[in-house]
UniProtKB/TrEMBL annotation, chain B:
The keyword Transcription does not apply. SMART domains: NADH_4Fe-4S. SUPFAM superfamilies: Nqo1 FMN-binding domain-like (SSF142019), Nqo1 middle domain-like (SSF142984), Nqo1C-terminal domain-like (SSF140490). Belongs to the complex I 51 kDa subunit family. Keywords: 4Fe-4S, Iron, Iron-sulfur, Metal-binding. It comes from the Bacteria. Gene3D superfamilies: 3.10.20.600, NADH-ubiquinone oxidoreductase 51kDa subunit, NADH-ubiquinone oxidoreductase 51kDa subunit, iron-sulphur binding domain. Residues 320-365 form the NADH-ubiquinone oxidoreductase 51kDa subunit iron-sulphur binding domain. Pfam families: Complex1_51K, NADH_4Fe-4S. Signal peptide: none annotated. Its cofactor is FMN. This is NADH-quinone oxidoreductase subunit F. One of its GO terms (molecular function) is metal ion binding.
From TrEMBL, chain C:
The keyword tRNA-binding does not apply. It comes from Falsiroseomonas algicola. Keywords: Flavoprotein, Oxidoreductase. InterPro entries: FAD-dep_OxRdtase_2_FAD-bd, FAD/NAD-bd_sf, SdhA/FrdA/AprA, Succ_DH/fumarate_Rdtase_cat_sf. It comes from the Bacteria. GO terms for biological process: NAD+ biosynthetic process. Transmembrane segments: none annotated. The active site is at R353 (proton acceptor). This is FAD-binding protein. GO terms for molecular function: oxidoreductase activity. It holds the Pfam family FAD_binding_2. Residues 1-22 are annotated as: Disordered. PANTHER family: SUCCINATE DEHYDROGENASE 2 FLAVOPROTEIN SUBUNIT (PTHR11632), SUCCINATE DEHYDROGENASE [UBIQUINONE] FLAVOPROTEIN SUBUNIT, MITOCHONDRIAL (PTHR11632:SF51).
Length: 225, 407, 534
């Protein structure tokens, strides 16, 4: 049995589809994702790859121009299937670096939390409403609306819009005002959880552990084969 | 040859301007119907970079119904290597206003926006004072009488952003919004400021109009060399002995600009290339030294005159580093509306930065060529096209410089 | 084998599946027990232990670099070096940095591009009033066929509730039970397959994504942590006494070797799914190539239960381009049923994963599978689930619905065709309760470590393990660096290793770690052989 996700598609004997990725004219196996097509073409893959198909790691950012279309679209290569005549360019990630510094632990007073949005992300209020973030998001998140809600102080509502954000940071690359929307979303969500999520059952169980009433008997009958 | 840069025009007082000029506007007032034919006969082209025949734009706006039509005298000028408009605005504000009023008479526009880059504080100041002087002058009343409405001059500070120079962006900016370029059509001539027909012309284009009306289309056309008409302000910079603004006949050869007017290459270095007008066009090389610098000749060579900016680089300069610098400018200037433009120029800039840092990899050049082919046409305006053009040209013309940067 | 159309047309019988003997099922059909799947290790401290042949080839290989390759290389200094940027590595880095250590993290892909971000189902912690730490402890041992280390399991289980609190403090969200308040409300709990209580806490069906994006952000914002992405470790460094003192990394961006010296090293390199054991597809990320096991074993770290791998029951069987992609156990935890081609249930869907996977393989082997365009599998009845709980697919099984969309069908109308996919390395590098390996200075956490799961891991214990032991190993590593500073750091361990290979009659020209799967077309040797000084 063939093991390789790319090659196994070659073996299936299916049709191939001509596409161009980063200047390489390749024949993609029918049905292959852009990442699989890259591998199947024998090209080296050391970056812009992670989960390879689940669409959750955000590593494989691409610009894709479909045949007959004037405007290229941003997408994730593992989620995009090869179509005849596609022209594809990978969008690299910059090395990890975060200009928007904050410390959740120092945010002890929840009354000051909303003020922190502007203190940490001062660019957000300069949103020029170009809509580039929305157009760039491969997950269909209403990024611009979320940024604007955050500026209005509606932190929970804004954070909720980033619920299924995979942090591919295409919105960061797309934003001309350097707002870093995905990181703003993370800030809002993390702040909300760290300040307001206090599950009663969890707190009770931690109390029991601390007072010794949840001790584990390593040799209990249920621990024996 | 000094038409626009005539020292006699570099005056602050309107009276001093009218002592040596003003005949163009007076001629326009005498025969409003004759303006557009004169502009056409003179062969005036849009000098902000596009080279679109001026009379066609003017005629299009003139054909639209008033009242409330607009003129935007576009002095946003923000592209690297271009520094002609700031001269005209700061040193010869009356020349610009006179030209704009000629256009107002021609197209019957009552609102004249003097759209200026706020980074040029001297230009803003000079223009405000000049506009105030015109407001109080009987000539403006005469213009209003012909237009049929009270003509007002207003100085509008632009955002200072590069994209603000694009004509639909200029319209958006004058309306008070962010200078987002818009898809065309509709064109500003039909649907401009507040929906009103709007003539958007570069300030250099407008400044020429007064002279054409004053001295005649034939005179103006004759200023150019060969088929090219009139004069052009060239912003000469880079590795030449005498950089600066040079007013020369349209159609002057690149060789004459660089080696006569520019004093030749700095330090006796060899001539390598010229980044023209934006710098968003195909590079000119030694093989192009005898090309006539006018819209049609350069286009025939696969390049463009653009704004008339000529950034000359010697063989002591890295084309890769220059290209990286300009692409980074475009990436930073992209307005954000079109992700392929913003993200695509960002990726090009990233790859060039890597090559520049000596960390280029096999495949990087293919990736760059791929982007140069994929990106054009992906934006509402021409920004991404320009970035792709200069990239493609730089790659095609100096492949060995790129190859050397690969590890 | 039953054709797809015929299988769809067959009425599905919701009656409980017949009883069968689990041990003989596992022996007969689990891939770990397939004839010839395992070979005994011939060299190293765990010689004699059974191990999958493909993994043994790597474990018993020679190093990619030798002394001359590391001469003249740039050296980075840190107190704690963390190798691996998935969940365990990030948690360890955070913990060590907060304990005051200067931390350097090396990652092969980008930080976060690992299996953690792909975890869908959830994280176990015994918070229910009817539940207890004891039950969690016993469930874990039983699911692992009593082969797990009791002290490790007890440590993990005990850390559970506190780990959840810690995650919330980092900003992670958890689903609350329907209608419950954010303060004082009860968490949504699901029952993992093989557990006796509802103990699985989750965030939608992308718990790992929520965890990873929060932890990654915390790492980026924590002073004292330097992250070098795209820097896979290709060998560990030792001092003359055999203490681990850093790593040799390959800078993929510049394609040159870089050395990282540290007082303590935490290996958090994850699993081995990309070895595609026994020809199985995998749910793992692109970098899951057992690098950490290879490096640690060469240094003398003991391995355990490396013969045991988890095959997740519900990998995609069709369409082929998504083969191996995971469908979360959340679908079964929520009530989703499995059917063979005859329309019969054949296993308790919430039995431990090894049992469910083996039962599916039995159905395939015995001709009761469904075939679609040449792909064999059984049905995960999402239409039945939607009919029983209208709205569940759109609201709670978001990832699953998204996956169906990408496969080109509506999960409310059509079932998934599924078959087991290589999912998790149950064993790994042996550790103690502080994450220490047998090698001084070398710590390990997460999927790379062994002892927590025995021969089968319970759903939700992977995320708990990486938090609990990421914190334990990070704290212990930060503590360990204060003891002494490494001197005479190099590759002295390799001579002894080569002697061992020679003695065992093993080839010296087989090199590991593999770093990238073969189909990644990466010429590692070319990058590594660019010597500065020979």
């Amino acid at each position: 049995m063939s093991l390789e996700p790319g090659r196994s598609l070659w073996d299936s004997g299916g049709m191939t589809i001509p596409i161009i990725i980063d200047g390489h004219a390749i024949e993609a196996p029918d049905g292959a994702s852009l990442i699989q097509a890259w591998i199947a073409a024998g090209l080296p893959l050391t970056e812009n790859v992670g989960c390879m198909g689940q669409g959750v790691c955000g590593a494989c950012r691409v610009l894709v121009r479909r045949e007959g279309e004037r405007i290229a679209a941003a997408a994730l290569a593992c989620e995009t299937r090869a179509e005849a005549g596609m022209q594809v360019a990978f969008i690299d990630h910059f090395p990890a670096r975060r200009p928007h510094a904050y410390d959740l632990d120092a945010m002890g007073d929840s009354w000051s939390a909303l003020g922190q949005v502007d203190a940490v992300f001062p660019e957000a209020k300069h949103c020029r409403h170009c809509g580039g973030c929305d157009a760039a998001c491969p997950k269909g998140i209403e990024v611009q609306k979320a940024v604007n809600l955050a500026v209005e102080g509606r932190a929970l509502a804004a954070g909720a819009l980033f619920d299924h954000c995979v942090m591919c940071n295409l919105c960061v690359a797309a934003c001309p005002e350097h707002i870093a929307p995905s990181h703003l979303g993370q800030f809002l969500r993390r702040m909300a959880n760290s300040l307001t999520l206090r599950p009663g059952d969890l707190i009770e169980r931690i109390r029991q552990i601390e007072n010794g009433s949840q001790a584990i008997d390593l040799d209990a009958p249920g621990a024996q084969p | 040859m000094r038409v626009l840069t005539d020292p006699a025009l570099r005056v602050a007082a309107l009276a001093d301007h009218l002592a040596v000029a003003g005949d163009g506007l007076r001629a326009a007032l005498r025969d409003p119907a004759g303006i557009i034919p004169a502009i056409e006969a003179a062969g005036l082209r849009g000098l902000g970079g596009a080279g679109f025949p001026a009379h066609r734009k003017w005629a299009a706006v003139a054909a639209e119904p008033g009242p409330g039509k607009w003129i935007i005298a576009n002095g946003n000028e923000d592209e690297p290597g271009t520094f002609k408009d700031r001269f005209l605005l700061a040193e010869t504000p009356h020349q610009v206003i006179e030209g704009a009023l000629v256009a107002a008479v021609a197209v019957r526009a009552s609102r004249v926006a003097l759209y200026v880059n706020p980074r040029e504080a001297a230009g803003v100041r000079a223009l405000r004072e000049a506009a105030a002087a015109w407001e109080a002058h009987p000539l403006l009343a005469a213009v209003s009488a012909v237009v049929g409405e009270a003509v007002e001059l207003r100085v509008v500070e632009s955002s200072g952003l590069y994209i603000g120079g694009e004509e639909t962006a200029a319209v958006a900016s004058v309306q008070g919004g962010f200078p987002f370029p818009a898809l065309k059509p509709p064109f500003p001539a039909q649907h401009g400021v507040g929906g009103a027909p709007t003539l958007v012309n570069n300030v250099e284009t407008l400044a020429q109009a007064g002279h054409i009306l004053a001295k005649g289309a034939a005179w103006y056309r004759g200023l150019g060399i060969g088929d090219a008409a009139g004069v052009k302000l060239f912003s000469l910079s880079g590795d030449v002995l005498r950089p600066g603004l040079h007013e020369l006949p349209m159609g002057t050869s690149l060789r004459a600009l660089v080696f006569e007017h520019g004093g030749g290459m700095l330090g006796g270095r060899g001539f390598k290339a010229v980044f023209t007008g934006g710098p968003s066009n195909t590079l000119l090389t030694a093989a192009d030294l005898d090309v006539a610098m006018d819209f049609d000749s350069l286009r025939a060579r696969g390049s463009r005159l653009g704004t008339g900016a000529m950034i000359v680089v010697s063989d002591g300069t890295s084309i890769l580093r220059k290209t990286a610098e300009y692409v980074a400018f475009f990436a930073a200037s992209s307005c954000g509306q079109c992700p392929p433009c913003k993200v695509g120029t960002f990726q090009v800039a990233r790859l060039l930065e890597r090559l520049e840092a000596g960390a280029g990899r096999p495949g990087d050049l293919e990736a760059l060529r791929n982007l140069a082919a994929l990106l054009p046409g992906s934006g509402r305006c021409g920004l991404v096209d320009g970035a792709a053009t200069v990239l493609a040209s730089s790659l095609a013309t100096f492949p060995e410089e790129y190859a050397r940067a690969l590890r | 084998m039953i054709g797809w159309e015929q299988a769809l047309a067959t009425p599905r019988d919701a009656a409980p599946p017949p009883a069968f003997d689990k041990e003989s099922l596992l022996r007969g059909f689990h891939p770990d027990h397939a004839p010839g799947a395992m070979v005994p290790l011939r060299v190293g401290v765990s010689a004699g232990q059974p191990c999958p042949a493909a993994l043994a080839d790597l474990l018993q290989a020679n190093a990619l670099v030798e002394d001359v390759d590391i001469a003249g290389r740039a050296m980075r200094e840190a107190e704690v070096l963390v190798v691996g940027g998935g969940g365990a590595g990030c948690v360890a880095a955070l913990t060590a940095a907060r304990a005051g250590a200067r931390v350097l993290m090396l990652t092969k892909l980008r930080m976060g591009d690992g299996n953690t971000v792909m975890a869908e189902g959830g994280i176990q912690a015994a918070v229910g009033a009817e539940d207890s730490l004891q039950r969690h402890y016993e469930d874990t041992l039983r699911a692992g066929h009593f082969r797990a280390d009791r002290a490790l399991v007890a440590a993990m289980v005990q850390d559970g509730p506190e780990a959840i609190r810690w995650l919330i403090q980092q900003g992670m969200g958890f689903d609350l039970a329907e209608g419950e308040d954010r303060i004082g409300g009860h968490l949504r709990r699901k029952k993992p397959g093989g557990a006796t209580a509802a103990r699985l806490l989750s965030f939608r069906d992308y718990t790992g994504l929520e965890l990873m994006r929060v932890i990654r952000e915390a790492v980026l914002l924590t002073p004292g942590i330097t992250v070098l992405e795209r820097h896979p470790a290709v060998e560990l460094l030792t001092d003359p006494h055999g203490r681990c003192a850093g790593a040799v990394a390959l800078d993929l961006e510049r394609r040159e070797i870089l050395l990282a010296r540290a007082g303590a090293v935490v290996l958090a390199t994850g699993g081995a799914g990309r070895l595609h054991l026994s020809g199985f597809p995998t749910s793992n990320h692109y970098g899951a190539t057992a690098d950490g096991l290879v490096l640690a074993y060469r240094l003398g770290a003991r391995l355990r239960e490396v013969e045991s791998f988890q095959y997740h029951p519900t990998g995609i069987a069709w369409p082929p381009h998504l083969a191996g992609t995971l469908i979360s156990e959340a679908a079964r935890a929520a009530g989703g049923k499995l059917f063979n081609g005859l329309g019969d249930r054949f296993v308790d869907e919430l039995a431990p994963r090894d049992v469910v996977a083996a039962a599916i393989l039995r159905e395939i082997a015995e001709g009761r599978a469904v075939a679609r365009e040449g792909c064999a599998g059984v049905l995960l009845d999402t239409p039945g689930l939607e009919a029983a709980q209208p709205g569940i697919l759109a609201k709670r099984l978001v990832t699953l619905s998204h996956l169906a969309h990408r496969a080109g069908f509506d999960p409310a109308r059509e079932p998934f065709l599924i078959r087991p996919t290589l999912h998790y390395q149950n064993g790994g590098i042996a550790i103690d309760a502080e994450g220490r390996t047998a090698v001084p200075g070398l710590f390990c956490a997460g999927e790379a470590s062994g002892g927590l799961h025995g021969l089968n891991r319970l759903m939700g214990n992977a995320l708990l393990e990486l938090v609990a032991f990421g914190r334990r190993a990070g704290a212990a590593a930060a503590e360990a660096v204060r003891e002494d500073r490494p001197r005479g750091v190099g590759l002295t361990h390799l001579a002894e290793w080569e002697r061992g290979l020679v003695a065992a009659g093993l080839p010296l020209d087989r090199r590991a770690p593999m770093v990238f799967p073969a189909y990644g077309n990466v010429d590692l040797a070319a990058m590594l052989r660019k010597r500065v000084a020979a």
